[in-house]
Amino acid sequence: MSALSRDAIRTMMAEVLQAQGKSMPADDSANLEEIGFRSLDFSELALRVEDEIGDELNFDAPELRQIATISDVLDFLEQLQAA
Amino acid sequence: MSDKTEPIGPASVVVVSGGSRGLGLAIVEDILAQGAKVAAFARTVTPELEAVAAAHPDRVVAASVDVTDVKAINAFLKDAESRLGPIDALVNNAAMGQDSLHVHTSPEQIAKIIETNLTAPLLLARAVLRRIMAKGNRGRIVMVTSVCAQRGYSGLVAYSATKGGLDSAMRTLAREMHGRALVNSVAPGFFASEMSSVLGQTQLDTITRRTPSGRLVEPDNIVPVVNMLLFKDTNINGQVLTVDGGNSI
């Protein structure tokens, strides 16, 4: 299956937040800590993306620690799909 | 005649896996300072280990061997014995790390961690013990494990499983080798140098504050404990000695 678009990943991220009663800001520079998107939420999002593309996106924790904004999340998941 | 088993003597020829840098290299240097001989190997022999071997040509055998390559390990042990004399001790130190959540660690990577950190040390211990027993000798085995075997730390699931497995094997070996070998583990906490590469200064300060000794563990803290298990008559057997400044208590 082909890679998910940035918009599709963004929609999925919004779904993860909505499931916790949180909302996805329009601004991609929003800080993850401020919007309450934690590292395990990123894991959940990555696993949802995996389900869609039918492939595993494995990665080490240090890479995850660099992620601070919504934009970082989208960039990283795009990179993982391209790898 | 006394029915007491005589103490197992100090080690004289020690195999050290992962002996080319860091804690392994420090252990190699300490064994030499103790007057014993060392057969050290690692996947890559560093200039530091080369220098140690060059300085002690009659007491050190150093080679580049992958700990998961059983044939190469056996050939290395045979060569080391022909040059140094009968092997009577092992420091099972070689290991690979992990820093990834379990759900994002590939099955291949999990298999590699288990092979390197659990299967290979078990096979190495087996090979060394076979050589010791075949000659009617006795010896000492030290497993370098980790506090991760006792406490949960995020990002280290497979790694912790291997270290816990090694601690369990150590206890069973200590009983199984009844009087023929002393088998123990040394379980370091996280080294300050390792943690500083992934944590910020604030987090390091917090961990230090929560460590009862007030200090994060350094390789130099581990070396004397390994030395004791290799050379002293303590009758410690089948134990895990945790060295972490009391952080895990």
Describe, in plain words, how this protein is organized in 3D.
The complex is a heterodimer of chains A (83) and B (249). Chain A has 83 residues and is mainly alpha-helical. Chain A has helices at residues 6-18, 32-35, 39-53, 61-65, 70-82. Chain A has one domain (6-82): ACP-like (Non-ribosomal Peptide Synthetase Peptidyl Carrier Protein, Chain A, Orthogonal Bundle), CATH 1.10.1200. Chain A is 60% helix and 0% strand. In chain A, 16% of the residues are buried. The mean pLDDT of chain A is 93. Chain B has one domain (13-190, 219-238): Rossmann fold, CATH 3.40.50. In chain B, helix 1 crosses helix 8 and helix 4 (107-134) packs parallel to helix 5 (157-176). The longest helix of chain B is centred in the middle third of the chain and has 28 residues, at 107-134. The mean pLDDT of chain B is 93. The interface between A and B is medium-sized, with 13 and 11 residues.
Short description:
The complex is a heterodimer of chains A (83) and B (249). Chain A has helices at residues 6-18, 32-35, 39-53, 61-65, 70-82.
